[in-house]
Design brief:
176 residues; alpha+beta; Alpha-Beta Plaits; two-stranded antiparallel ribbon; 4 helices
Length: 176
C-alpha cells in the first residue's frame, strides 16, 4: 500500500534538458519537465474529464503560465510554459495543483449539471425582479407584484442622506 502523498517516479527516455524523471500521478502523467526552458507537459486520459473541465482548470493557471491544450490519440496533452523561471520542485507542485484543479472543476461541473433546473429558476426570478417596473401580465399573481412602487415618493427609496449619489467632481456638482 502506498502512503498518502507519495507518488511513483519512473525514469523515461526523453529529449531535452532536465532530470529525465517522469512522475506518474493517478490521473495526470508528467510527460516532460524542463526547468531550463520553463516548460512542463502533462497528459491525461480523455475519458477522465469532460473537455469543459479541462478548459476551466487550464484557465486558472493563465496568470502563472502560458497554456496550450492538445489531444494526441486517447490523451489530452497540457503544455505549460511558465511566465517566470521555476525550479523542478515548483513544476511538480504545479502538476499537483493542476490535478487538484481538475478535480475541483469536475465537481463544479457535476453540481451545475445536477442543479441546472434550480439555477435556471433562480435566474428567471432575478430577471423578473430586475424588470419590476414592467407592468405585470394580466392574470398574474400578486406574489409577483413589484416590491417598490416607483410612483410613491413617500417611501424614501430615492432619499440620499449620505449624499452618495452626488458627483465627486466639483465641476459636475453644479449641474444638478
Amino acid at each position: 500500500m502506498e502512503a498518502l502523498g507519495v507518488r511513483n517516479t519512473h525514469i523515461r527516455p526523453r529529449t531535452g534538458s532536465g532530470s529525465g524523471r517522469v512522475r506518474t500521478m493517478p490521473n495526470v502523467q508528467i510527460e516532460t519537465l524542463d526547468p531550463a526552458t520553463a516548460t512542463l507537459t502533462l497528459s491525461l486520459d480523455v475519458g477522465l474529464y469532460p473537455r469543459d473541465v479541462l478548459y476551466a482548470a487550464a484557465y486558472v493557471f493563465l496568470d502563472r503560465a502560458y497554456v496550450l491544450l492538445d489531444r494526441q490519440d486517447a490523451r489530452f496533452v497540457v503544455r505549460f510554459r511558465s511566465k517566470r523561471p521555476l525550479d523542478e520542485a515548483t513544476f511538480h507542485a504545479m502538476a499537483g495543483e493542476f490535478e487538484n484543479e481538475l478535480l475541483a472543476q469536475a465537481l463544479r461541473h457535476r453540481v451545475v449539471d445536477a442543479n441546472q433546473r434550480i439555477i435556471e429558476d433562480v435566474v428567471a426570478v432575478a430577471i423578473a425582479g430586475a424588470a419590476a417596473g414592467v407592468d405585470p401580465e394580466p392574470g398574474s399573481s400578486p406574489a409577483h407584484a413589484p416590491l417598490i412602487d416607483l410612483d410613491d415618493q413617500s417611501d424614501g427609496f430615492l432619499d440620499d442622506p449620505l449624499e452618495i449619489a452626488r458627483p465627486f467632481d466639483p465641476a459636475k456638482q453644479d449641474t444638478e
